[in-house]
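All the exercises in this workshop are built on plain-text protein records. A record pairs a protein's sequence with a compact description of its fold. The structure tokens are whole numbers drawn from a learned vocabulary of backbone shapes. Once this layout is familiar, the rest of the handout is easier to follow. An example says more than a description, so a record of this kind follows.
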Amino acid sequence: MIVIWVVFLAVLGACVGSFLNVVIYRLPSGQSIVFPSSHCPTCGRAIRWYDNIPLLSWLLLRGRCRWCKKPISPRYILIEAVAAVLVAGLFAWYFILGRRSGAGAFETAWPMYAAHAALLCGLLACAAVDIEHWIVPLEVCWVVSAAGLVSSAASPHAFMPRVSPATGAMALAAVAGLALAMLMVKYGLIRRSFTDVEEKPVARDSLEKDTVPPPGRKSQQTSKVVLEPYSKAHGVNPRLEVLREVLFLVPALVLAAGVYGLVTRVEVVRQVWLRLTAEGPLSVHVSVLLAALWGYLVGGAWIWGARIGGTLAFGREAMGMGDVHLLAAVGAVTGWVVPSIAFFVAPFLGLLWALYLLASRNQRQLPYGPWLAAGTLIVMLFYDDFRGFLAPMTEAFR
């Protein structure tokens, strides 16, 4: 039965990967991911169902369109294969190998597993888009965040780190503050940051030389267009612009602090809040939902704080808002601990890549999103090991 489940989930993951290819190709250009149906990007002919079977069709067609014979990027089969490994491998890691304590039985824990698998597939899509276009598709982050919140509320699980009632109240108040700030932006009471620049400036990535040029031709150089951080050279003051983001966060911070004071210092308010979150048949669902909201906020706060601090310190845009949404989605699915550790793991992965570039003199740079995705995967898989390592220093793990 276990083998059947692994095979089924691998096939399901490959099908999800096929859909991710559509997302990766269409979202950056603003195309619909529903219409039109799958077609060859070169000749425009619709792809028949028998030519759209994950993994197999690419191999049977030898990586070429049936009609125009133009090459089909190997990225398609790569994304399908990686998605299949992630979905089936996560099941094996949690429920067969038992490498994550507290997983429980799959029959009862499947909503949690589905949310975690959706997170990994979403991170795969975000990393692929970020590598190619240097942007993070926010729609993917929003869908993953919603999946995490719904899963946590509908089926509470032990993987979600619990938070105190007062912290849960802060999370709810902060979300209300963010909603209020968005309304203020909509009606012009708060101005968006970096709106004085119509388009994101671009710069050429460092040149890459062909190591083996074709016979009779000289070695060629190619370059990749990447997004360049805003600086004074682009006609804006990054420090001033990022202060607009601080202003955007003020309602959330004020409401969170005010509600925390009410819940902890006003006995009547504390008792009412405890009845809502700690008593009754739905209390566990409410408390886990609040823990997921707190994870969403903490995940985003790590990157947004680094963005604000780095921009103020160096006078040029640091980090990107897409990375804020990405790590916030991680927190919505896994709680506040995983994104907090992944935030510190990702730079080490980036440093290893930088050392590789230095040693190989290959100047192909990568954006930060893939390192956040890779760091999240590592922390999710080896969460128990991180917990054992950090437990003597903190009692925050539950």
About this structure: Residues 38 and 305 are 40 Å apart (CA to CA). Residues 1-133 form one domain. The chain has a mean pLDDT of 88. The beta strands are 202-204, 208-209, 221-222, 225-227.
